[in-house]
Amino acid sequence: MSSSDYRHPPTCLANFCIISRDGVHHVGQAGLELSTSELVSCVGWTTAEELYSCSDDHQIVKWNLLSSETTQIVKLPDDIYPIDFHWFPKSLGVKKQTQAESFVLTSSDGKFHLISKLGRVEKSIEAHCGAVLAGRWNYEGTALVTVGEDGQIKIWSKTGMLRSTLAQQGTPVYSVAWGPDSEKVLYTAGKQLIIKPLQPNAKVLQWKAHDGIILKVDWNSVNDLILSAGEDCKYKVWDSYGRPLYNSQPHEHPITSVAWAPDGELFAVGSFHTLRLCDKTGWSYALEKPNTGSIFNIAWSIDGTQIAGACGNGHVVFAHVVEQHWEWKNFQVTLTKRRAMQVRNVLNDAVDLLEFRDRVIKASLNYAHLVVSTSLQCYVFSTKNWNTPIIFDLKEGTVSLILQAERHFLLVDGSSIYLYSYEGRFISSPKFPGMRTDILNAQTVSLSNDTIAIRDKADEKIIFLFEASTGKPLGDGKFLSHKNEILEIALDQKGLTNDRKIAFIDKNRDLCITSVKRFGKEEQIIKLGTMVHTLAWNDTCNILCGLQDTRFIVWYYPNTVYVDRDILPKTLYERDASEFSKNPHIVSFVGNQVTIRRADGSLVHISISPYPAILHEYVSSSKWEDAVRLCRFVKEQTMWACLAAMAVANRDMTTAEIAYAAIGEIDKVQYINSIKSLPSKESKMAHILLFSGNIQEAEIVLLQAGLVYQAIQININLYNWERALELAVKYKTHVDTVLAYRQKFLETFGKQETNKRYLHYAEGLQIDWEKIKAKIEMEITKEREQSSSSQSSKSMGLKP
């Protein structure tokens, strides 16, 4: 963190020291020249290296951190005391500006001023009685909200025309923020926070947030979380429904400023002689005590690596975030300086130093590769060789997210999504209408070897699915739609493309799973669990873990829900999760180790059994005998249940019979035996599908093989009377058989026939059970003959 003093004449050296995630590191000096005398009220970044500040001596000053120069942009009239200012947003639909070109400045005389980057005052507008305490552009730059001492909240057009007075109250409004969709406004009202939609009759959300007057609020567009700070000396984190997520301990002085980092992963808190760096869940990474007076305003640089603070004693304080850590297996990577990293191999204590031309913005370590994005380039290191990275130029400097899969990685910047191989080759760039990449995070984007999934922001019930190799929509181009808003998504990482599954948590905290290959029919979304807060797939096999209420749960074979839902509880591992405190989060699931971050920021490592992963490996290689041997060695019901489901999914009924017998599912063993005795392979396939509950698929298999009677019979056995009659009439066979079974069914319950279709076909028809049984016997004989003839013709074809 550095501070530059306005008060001293010409050359004032700024002590740069760094807020780190492990403490504070002083890194030398930089000369920043300027002389003023009053408090600094507000600051804002134009680029990652250029900052503007306003002070009570009416000056607007530009700070260049590269050249360590300061320039006075404009001296405002003596009656203008600046209070707040906000740069016009850079993103304008498809068009991108490289830097902000104008800003709004609010002042104590009741006006706000639209000022160009060069300092020309384009317009001054009378807005409020008394001071205009805050002004904020919405994310699209189409509207401006101002709040004042008069208790009014006003919405203005881009050019400064009054659109509406959104609200009016008796107390001053000290701070305001737009909702992520620019459809709602959050503002303070004494000790209350209020979220008011722009639509006239929409529901207003209001709650008591602090025990003192609330001085500052911020609402992040990526994580949709709200920050508030007040005279009760506390800062708090809320979700967008006003539910408390974090409540800080009281500080010595009122909290005068809070601000989210652009990516929503961190936030900064300012108070008297205090600057604090916090995780989005509330716990502190670092606390610094600079000699600044109160920090009235905090601004994050566009790339999220630096903070600037406007201080009451005439300083501007700067801070850089370093000492971030990334871990994967036996490697630990630390950002030691803005342009340097240290890699430590904990097995042999070997240390490598990585140096970069530009400052590091984002990094990710997974799947034996470290991917680092700087302000201009992307570096890809292999864990086998740290000396020769693949380097390529970035299309746009500010990368906000890096996701990795085994074969490739994804970069997200302000305008697009890019997929690259680990050799640095560009693969694809998926797009969909209305895509906003600036609000994507690791919870709303997921990557596997063949699929990219993105949760839409415009409609949070929708997930867009893309082929990784082409960037085109997956399957028939349909998106995945759910009945509730989706909070977090995750693709499984292993297995065949056709078996790819996606797990997600919805607004009700239900954990659901569904298939991503979608052609024609709508894939079934199946609920796996309730009250799930966080989830993660394993990196080497398709095992899923999650925190469910007060339990930590591992689904060793989630596909069990598609095969035999009855035995799903037997395939789970559960343990008490109360030791992880409130709101823990799963960081990673690598090998057989799950890493969980508790609410206080500490990491907890849980080891799970390695045997299910070995079982997955055997099954994927069709080593069924080895799989059975492993289960006999481990002697756990969980393993046998997983093997039973895996065997049925892979149509290996011999192994399934052994596994079901081991877990005492005798009825299923008997059914599997009956399947084995069926004459044709089509019948066997159909009954295996029936076993898994896939009735339609079973019927289709039988009809395609010409086994119409068998298709009718499975519908009779399942009491699907309408469908059974429909098939009999359509194929002009066994109508009397269906009517006979229907009559027998009704007689058992002492009921009369009321179905009009059945009454119509029963007219004048005599049911002869001897005749029906003979027909059935003939069908079975015919099937047996067909099966034996097809087998003999195959064996003849195999002879030399």
TrEMBL record:
Record has Translocase as a keyword: no
Gene Ontology biological process terms in this record: apoptotic process; articular cartilage development; bone mineralization involved in bone maturation; canonical NF-kappaB signal transduction; cartilage homeostasis; endochondral ossification; establishment or maintenance of cell polarity; fibroblast growth factor receptor signaling pathway
PROSITE patterns to which the protein is assigned, alphabetical: WD_REPEATS_2 (PS50082), WD_REPEATS_REGION (PS50294)
Protein name per the record: Intraflagellar transport protein 80 homolog
SMART domains named among the record's database cross-references: WD40
Localisation per UniProt entry: Cytoplasm, Cytoskeleton, Cilium axoneme; Cytoplasm, Cytoskeleton, Cilium basal body
Function: Component of the intraflagellar transport (IFT) complex B, which is essential for the development and maintenance of motile and sensory cilia.
Self-association state and partner proteins as the record states: Component of the IFT complex B, at least composed of IFT20, IFT22, IFT25, IFT27, IFT46, IFT52, TRAF3IP1/IFT54, IFT57, IFT74, IFT80, IFT81, and IFT88. Interacts with IFT88. Interacts with IFT57 and IFT70B.
Region (Disordered): 781-800
The organism's place on the tree of life at top rank: Eukaryota
Residue intervals of the IFT80 second beta-propeller domain: 323-611
Domain IFT80/172/WDR35 TPR: from-to ranges: 639-785
Pfam families: Beta-prop_IFT80_2nd (PF23335), TPR_IFT80_172 (PF23387), WD40 (PF00400)
Organism: Papio anubis (Olive baboon)
Residues in WD repeats: 125-157, 207-239
